[in-house]
Prior knowledge:
Strand content: 25-35%
Shape: globular
Number of strands: 14
Distance between the termini: 31 Å
Strand order of the largest sheet: 1-2-3-4-5-6
Radius of gyration: 16 Å
CATH topology: Metallo-beta-lactamase, Chain A
Number of domains: 1
CATH superfamily: Ribonuclease Z/Hydroxyacylglutathione hydrolase-like
CATH class: Alpha Beta
Number of helices: 7
Structural class: alpha/beta
Amino acid sequence: MIIKTVTVGELRTNCYIVASSKTREAVIIDPGDEAEKIIEAIETEKLKPILIVNTHAHPDHVGANFKLAEKYGIVAAIGEDGFRMIEDFKGYFEEFSGLKIEDLSMETLLKDNNMIDIGELKLKVINTPGHSKGSICLYGNKVLFSGDTLFAGTYGRTDIPGGSEEEMQASINKLMELPDQTVVYPGHGSRTTIGEERKAYA
């Protein structure tokens, strides 16, 4: 498995490029901004993007969708409830971010337990609402891409539209069932492990 991290935008969002070392096929997770930086990382590694995945619909995680979708002829996937949230807050979303929903290239809606195939690799979709409606994480090969659900030593904000402290606690409890050695790649900040976070939440 190849994992490239490209930190983008004013909010320093971690965009992850996850690829098969055998086929070079790649999934782009949370391309929030600075498409050119992401493209440079992809081209340097000679990877072949097949899909964009957004862990949730906040602008700092979806901002470069269109440019990457257009560049590589691919589409974006997002959790079903995440897409509904954009539709529900369409006016607010477009005014706040300047992004048009139709330009986000979100053509695939993901459900809990769906599998995303990247060559021989498989990433499982885990629904983790709390930071926003429709937040998801991706788990496989002993790694977790946690979006803004779980960070090193803390978790995502719940005091914003679509957030819920009760749902967040349930989502954190779900993630704590993963093996201790699972490496967590969060939407912002440094990596951690489920084992380390279990200590924090004990």
